[in-house]
Specification:
Length: about 550
């Protein structure tokens, strides 16, 4: 048995689970009027209410014991101080350095990385401001109106999510497009209405070798050359963000237009780096600084707050409680702010790529479950779709609800209706609806006794479904930075407790390797026989039926 499962806290939690598993939150709230005060935390304008969870004081005490037994405080220091905690890639993990405001040296392998971070930030801001103020001119001396960020995974999801979230704070005469899919439809649909004279491409790829991005980048270059006839002014239309400057130069990108990133920033943690170039162009450098500031304040909170008052720590521990003791296999993230519509997709990568691991830090297979299947959608949309399963399904799906106290335009009629849904849903998931309550409703509708008894089982809601609510004043850049950092640190804490490396991604690397090896088999029309019968069958069917011009 693993050390984790043998630990005193784990064993005590197992016991405690037996005591609490049949207790209903409705009764917990009935017995303790102070539950909200006890189980909610506030950081600046962000309120984290975790009182609608299946916990009591004992649960919190034991979960904190689990965190201490995993030496969480020591790991937090290792994270911030640049130790090589990404041991399978022998790298430090320093996305926190990218938003550091303390001006204290941050040493990675004997070198202070702060000056280089600052320099790169200045370079990014300079390019962004030139574009925003229309000083940056294209090949035919026109200002740039459209930016196309070509990247995928960590070089795509963060910038896309943030630019969507902060739309209200963006310049309206600049359009930011994102192309990630190697399927030609993505880039062609994007380029169809663009003018190469007023378009700037950002090739965002840490490695500058990712197939999807490089194929799309080449298509963009050909489109530009076809339309403008020569590459004389190509430097005015292409920039890159990468740690592989050599390959970016070989691609033809001018050195001044290449923005660096470092191997100690993981792709999914990189929106704070030059990968955020498209964000800075959209919202401006002052707003980007606010984003960094919001994250920095959470970093300080995470590093210094006692574990029980530490929001990311409590978020992580609740996840472990459901994942490992209630056997909940998934979790839902449900923002009630339209501008956060890409947040679940962003978080899906951050969480599942970080903690979807079955081998621990010692190289041993784990004997407990790790990262959950994370899914989500705008809360209101989800209500009219999959919330049925959350309320009455057979699976326990702990959910995070995120909502703003006011929105940018703040039309009261809309916002009150929105918020009434937030409060009603979390209350309903907690309370449910008893048979007595359902019967009374049906009687009030005038149904006869027989019809009531037939319908009754379907109208009962068991409740006791956990939700945690994050209420923030409004979705400005600083608040968004804080929310993202809360989740980043939550993921890290869970990785520490599960004793896994949250910062490598061998599963993603496998995809890159496999696609390359099959690609050359698609070059001709010969039948393949090198795989299993299913893969051979699929490849051969494809080769036989594809149009001749694609052969
Ligand atoms: C993120 C992953 C992965 C990566 C993409 C793109 O943490 O490593 O999603 O970001 O595969 O990689 P490049 O930026 O190297 O093109």
């Amino acid at each position: 048995m693993s050390e984790l499962k043998q630990s005193a806290a784990w064993q005590a939690l197992l016991q405690h689970y037996d005591d609490i598993k049949d207790v209903h939150m409705r009764d917990m709230f009935g017995e303790d009027q102070g539950r909200f005060d006890k189980y909610s935390l506030q950081l600046n304008n962000i309120l984290y209410d975790y009182s609608k969870n299946r916990i009591n004081d004992k649960t919190v005490e034991l979960l904190l014991q689990l965190a201490n037994e995993a030496e969480l405080p020591g790991w937090i220091e290792k994270l911030f101080s640049g130790e090589h905690i990404n041991h399978t890639e022998n790298r430090a993990v320093l996305h926190t350095a990218l938003r550091d405001k303390s001006n204290k040296p941050i040493i990675v392998d004997g070198v202070d990385v702060l000056p280089e971070i600052m320099q790169e930030r200045v370079n990014v801001k300079q390019l962004a401001e030139k574009i925003r103020t229309r000083q940056w001119r294209g090949a035919t001396n026109q200002a740039i109106t459209d930016i196309v960020n070509i990247g995928i995974g960590g070089s795509h999801l963060g910038p896309l999510m943030v630019t969507e979230a902060l739309k209200s704070h963006s310049l309206h005469d600049l359009n930011i497009h994102f192309v990630s899919n190697i399927d030609e439809n993505h880039i062609n649909d994007t380029l169809e209405y663009l003018n190469p004279e007023t378009t700037l491409f950002i090739i965002a790829s840490k490695t500058f070798t990712t197939q999807d991005t490089m194929v799309n980048a080449e298509t963009a270059r050909q489109w530009y050359l076809k339309k403008l006839g020569s590459d004389e002014h190509i430097s005015k239309h292409f920039a890159a963000v990468t740690s592989n400057v050599k390959l970016a130069k070989e691609f033809g990108i001018a050195e001044d237009n290449i923005f660096k990133m470092w191997d100690w920033v993981g792709g999914r943690y990189s929106l704070w780096s030059s990968i955020g170039l498209s964000i800075v162009i959209a919202i401006g450098s002052e707003q980007f600084d606010e984003l960094l500031e919001g994250a920095y304040e959470v970093d300080q909170h995470f590093r210094t707050a006692p574990l029980q008052e530490n929001i990311p720590v409590m978020m992580a521990l609740l996840g472990i409680w459901y994942n490992n003791f209630f056997d909940a296999q998934s979790m839902a993230v449900l923002p009630y702010d339209q501008h956060l519509h890409r947040f679940p997709a962003y978080l899906q990568q951050a969480d599942m790529e970080s903690n979807g691991k079955y081998v621990d830090r010692n190289g041993d297979e784990v004997d407990y479950t790790t990262g959950p299947v994370l899914f989500g959608e705008i809360g209101i949309a989800g209500q009219h779709a999959f919330f049925q399963l959350l309320h009455q399904g057979t699976k326990l799906v702990p959910s995070d609800i995120l909502a703003p106290v006011w929105s940018f335009r703040c039309i009261a009629r809309h916002h009150r209706a929105l918020m009434s849904n937030v409060f009603a849903q979390t209350e309903a998931m907690m309370r449910g609806k008893t048979a007595e309550e359902a019967r009374a409703e049906l009687q009030a509708e005038g149904l006869d006794a027989q019809a009531i008894e037939q319908l009754l089982p379907y109208k009962v809601f068991p409740g006791n479904r956990p939700t945690s609510t994050i209420l923030f004043d409004t979705l400005d850049a600083k608040t968004l930075g804080s929310i993202i950092a809360l989740y980043e640190h939550k993921i890290f804490v869970q990785g520490v407790i599960w004793n896994i490396n949250s910062f490598d991604q061998w599963g993603v690397e496998l995809g890159k390797q496999l696609a390359k090896s099959i690609l050359h088999e698609l070059d001709d029309t010969d039948e393949v026989a090198t795989h299993d019968s299913s893969t051979n069958g699929l490849i051969n069917h494809y080769k036989k039926r594809r149009p001749k011009k694609n052969s």
